[in-house]
Specification:
The chain has 227 residues and is α+β, with helices and mostly antiparallel strands. The chain is built from 8 helices and 6 strands.
């Protein structure tokens, strides 16, 4: 396999600059209409199985600092519980959730029960069945929902980079509704939490040179297998 593509297009040069955020800059907050435009673009270009989009994207803006602090605590506590269960872990030893509390905009994706569009309503009349419409089936489609949310965030990240903004995604939190009783608008399991804004500090900027050298994803030959 070639180590690199022969041609680097504009999209590659844009996406290769994506970095995980350690902390956001709260002196340079994007305007609400900029975020609304990015979210609309992500909605527009992200496909969905049977056109259902079986998730909500809840947006917590700059005025929701208390809620974002609670979400940060939930993620920190969830990580510590997992580490304590399987390892001898020292509390308070992971600083990499700071982006949750410092983000000017935080996105929470949770599952939802859907209504069909007219096309699929007619197919239902002819006997088709769609899990996205039934609350007791949400557990069976959480994987496909997560894939769709991942595509949404990949698209949103690209649009954000075009505007000089940063995004980060996290999957360390209580996913079940029982862990979100203090957030009454969370009615179904949480699929993803993401943040968006202008980065103050990137994750790799707070790592030592040894940590940065060690923290590498697998080589393409290990992941991509031609059959």
């Amino acid at each position: 396999m070639n180590k690199q593509p022969i041609f680097f297009g504009e999209i590659f040069h844009l996406l290769k600059n994506r970095r995980h955020v350690f902390e956001y800059d709260n002196t340079d907050i994007p305007k609400k209409n900029v975020i609304e435009d990015l979210l609309w673009k992500a909605w527009k270009v992200t496909p969905s199985k049977n056109s259902f989009m079986p998730y909500h994207c809840y947006v917590l803006g700059p005025d929701k600092g208390n809620e974002k602090h609670k979400i940060w605590l939930k993620s920190v506590n969830h990580k510590e519980k997992i580490d304590e269960k399987y390892n001898n872990y020292e509390k308070g030893n992971n600083p990499f959730f700071r982006h949750l509390a410092s983000a000017p905009y935080l996105l929470m994706f949770s599952q939802r029960v859907c209504e069909p569009n007219e096309h699929y309503r007619k197919r239902i009349e002819n006997g088709d069945y769609y899990e996205q419409m039934h609350e007791d089936q949400l557990g069976n489609i959480v994987d496909t929902t997560a894939i769709e949310v991942g595509m949404w965030m990949a698209n949103l990240s690209a649009f954000a980079l075009e505007k000089g903004l940063n995004t980060s995604v996290i999957k360390c939190y209580p996913s079940q509704v029982s862990g979100w009783k203090d957030f009454p608008w969370i009615k179904h399991p949480v699929v993803c939490i993401a943040t968006i804004g202008k980065a103050k500090t990137l994750r790799r900027e707070v790592m030592t040179e040894i940590q940065k050298k060690d923290d590498k994803k697998p080589e393409p030959e290990e992941i991509i297998k031609w059959i």
